Amino acid sequence: MLIDYKKANIYQNDGVLVLENVDFHVDEGEFIYIIGRVGAGKSSLLKTLYFELDVDEAETAVVLNHDVRDLKRKYIPALRRQMGIIFQDFQLLSDRTIHDNLEFVLRATGWRKKDEIEERIMDVLEDVEMEDYADRYPHELSGGEQQRIAIARAILNKPKVIIADEPTGNLDPETASNILQLLRQVTHTGTAVVMTTHNIPLLTQYPGIVYRCADHHVEEITNDYNKIASYQEEADAEEISRVDYSAREDLSM
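RE: above sequence
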């Protein structure tokens, strides 16, 4: 098992309890969604997975075979090299080309041989169908293209798990669907994907394991997410029914 939390309490840096008695598990090749309202603790849960927040109170809190309750800080860089992290705002280096963004990550994680670096960069760009964009700068790419590069960066070191915080949050529905297809393909290699999302229709289109953050707790609701999707559709339909079309100008004249 890659990640195993049992009865974990998660606090913000200011000491405020965000989530309590968390049971959360990730195995190889799994695709996991974390859903919930803004402020429900989704991002805080993710931050514990890549060691931005500590977990001190838990029956079990293991990430990549390391007990995070007493993890020494010196081990964190090596553990993060076994992860890929994707952010909603991409976090690409704006003053470097796509190629140089990827090269920077590889060199920072211990790659030294130029030919191996070049080969790996082209491999991941081909994986995300962006091989023709190596010499462009981030500002020359659309949001969907930048997120593809963020995925390429995340898989550079063949991680055991990818952690993605709202990776489709700023994207249109079609682009979001394409990004989900890419992430699903990654799981076929054995890499697990853990992502937060507000995009409930994605759960139906690309099924996975579903956890929900609510009322300071985390609950697995994989068998119930269709009910949530139905509820959302009903809510949307109700919202549409409230629109007053009578006040609109008659354009048929």
